[in-house]
Give the backbone structure.
Amino acid sequence: MPKAKKKKNSSFQTTITKSVFLYGRPNKEKLVILQQMQNSYTALINRDIDLLEKNPDIVLQLVKNDKKDPQMRKLEKAIRPEGINSAFCQNAFDAAVVQVSGRLNNIRLDLLSEGRGIFAQSKVLFAMSVMGCSKQKMEETMRQIEGMFYEDCTKTLHEMSEKEFSDLQLEFQERYATKSLEYRVPKLRFVSVPLDLRLMKIEQSTDTKMPYVIIITNPLKTRQRITIPLDTSGHFLHKIQNNKMAGMVLMQIRKGNLRIGWSYDSTRQQPATTNCIGVDTGISDCFHTSDGRAIGSMSPVIDFYHEEVEPAFAELANLRNKKRKIKHFLRKHNLPEDVRRSLIKKMDHLERMIQTAKAPYRKKRCYYARLDHEIKKSVTTYVDSISKDTLTAIEKLDIKEFNKSRKVNGMFSTFARGKLQRKLMEALNQKGCDFFEVAPD
């Protein structure tokens, strides 16, 4: 079985990205235009997601999240609607690629945890397996890529018999189809609209009391620009004046008001420390410090997962297994026509039950909400209790990347511990407190 993907090393970051927010109150006419922009952008992303999912020729680019590939750019131009700004369409297409790529990568990591070998380890072989490429074509592709890993993949493929390759690919396709049902195709309801220099311009205001104005080009109508005054707090105003701001902003309509998110990079020095506290990330206690403090508890949240979420998904998996057994039985046996029709109807009924099952996903969302609440409370309690000259020593979790699926992590408690530790490191970095990870004995 392939080795788990280990957690990346983390340490104090001297450069972090922060955001400031500016707010505007557009009149009714301008508000309608901005809402149309936001709705059109969301619809464009969902349309592009559907088109990308149905295109079998670009699976490799999607798995690699390669938005700048010539074939991807050619496709984006081919499906670009007439009468809509090209920059607006490109941003929507890139956002759709990110969504589809994330789904495919989650499926790949799940298959990797199940021991699918090089066909899940290598993104290239994973994509070629999805596309149904031959063994010979896979070998030729691997030979063209430099690196020891790809040489090992080529050797493994070469030593594999045609029958063994065919059986492995058949198993891969069945598991991929199952995972594709588990990870539904993304459908976005509400997204912020990215506006780069081709679509907007922010200037200091000269005719209003507001400090800034934003000039937005309407991507849905030629040669139409709208100007909206923007206000912000004194703190954000100071940050804007003292930092080099990004060339892209995020636009969002909230309760009839315009919100503009503008990011910048903040550079800081490594803080000097005078004392050190060790923090153990656990489950019974969220944090147990070297000075004897126990902060928070993850046990009730994990118990909810084991008692509510796991059984719900077990029932869903049972339905999928029943459907798979019937499909296998139909393929392997020569049955009378009336029996085949009866079994096909049963498969259709099981498929409807699978597609309409909402309880498992509702319970999973509830678990995430409880987990986030407990993590936020525990992290805030610890960070508020230390001074900036405190060095925090954290045990390094030797686990897979914790923002993946349940099966990839082996145990869902590992997911909870990993997320808890990541939030702690982010909070320490934001406050300017130094930390480092210590490998366990």
Q: What stands out?
A: Residues 236 and 242 are 10 Å apart (CA to CA).
